[in-house]
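Example record used in the benchmark description.
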Amino acid sequence: MPLPASERRAKLEAIKRSLESKGTLPITWKSTTPEALPFYLVPLSNLVWNRYNDRIAVQMLSDQAINGGYQEEYNETLEEKILDYIWHLNPEKNKQDLDHIKKNGQLIPGVVTADGVIVSGNRRAMLLKRAGLEFFKAVILEDAYEDQPTEIQKLETLLQFGEPDKADYEPLAKYLKYKKMRDAGLDSSQIAEFMGEDVTKSKVEECLRIMDVMDDYLSNHLDAPGQYYLLKKADGRASQEEAFIQLATTYHKIKDGKLSASWPYEQDRDAIRYKTTMFNLIRSEAITNPQEWRLVGAPGKKEKTGGIESSPGIMASKEIFESFVSKVKASVKEADTTTQDLRTYKENEKNVDLKDLHKKRESDWRSTRIEGRPIGKILAGAFNEARQRRQREVAERDPLVALKNIDGELVSILGQEDWEGEAFVENEDAINLVRKISAALEQIKKAMGLSKKLKSD
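Model output (structure tokens):
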């Protein structure tokens, strides 16, 4: 059972008075330059894991939203939940590090507050506990977490987003970090200063715009406010970060009238249509290549080739965009009619956790079949059709763009694991197409004088 804060504080004060330090750790605490502070061997039983740890922000904030914003009391159940969340963020790496810590012990000290809240080293402390070890090497700060929340959070940020554990933070952590600081009353300049010299005010504003789009998706599209785990793919591992980055960027371009499209789009109306379409593509996981999310919009500058925008994006063409949006809307409408709303799920599954209900509803929606095909395949097909139409449209007017598209398609083929299999390399149609493409390339090389140049090189 975790000790009360007052008891933890008394025990840590006793450690500082009666025990010799085991060394020093340079940290920047209440100053602009690092200071070497002593660290001690602290019993794990005198500590609690940090519920505000940015590493597990997705899980903890989602739980808090389910509880109506109510913060759970720190007890044995909550502690086990926190430890489980930390372990499952990266089980494979944690298994490797657990073996390492059993053999070598804790190499890098952590930092704890005066009342025993772990500021830095939550994952290391979790591994120590799993290894059956009793002590945690840590600097003991003079202040409790609640005494100096701003300074402690600043220290926490510097330590948690630095080495050695930076790679363990999932992409969503930084967005939730910025949102938490904005909710605490900090403006973009203050957040940038808080995060350190590598973060600019414009970068903070960009991340907050992306975070706002993510919240919009959860609250208004999925009716699941604060359920941040739904921003990940169905496997629970990869996030949809790139999709939301492109969505936020293009949405604001449309709203501001800066999209690379020559047709007279309506800024407010078409921004909403684009956003809704992207939300449905994200929900269905129709696009698997992160680099292709940009093609739903109209990336690039307003440069015309042959009287048409050279942007490869679907939205650069009014006709293609309108057709694509209509197909997505019709398919989603059919899928929505076969999937129950959340209220019905709650009525039918009264003993099931709300988080599991959300996951079940999303799984059911993605499993919806239209004419025998899952909704994700339907929307992927609509996207590929629109993308290829747009490629052909641009290529007809610009040979260079056509070559770039061909290059992209060939790279895509070579990136497939089984492209060298017999089914492809011995296929007569494939062989004839390769001969045709090779002949066309020889003509282009001849026109450019490349054949002689390549031989001489």
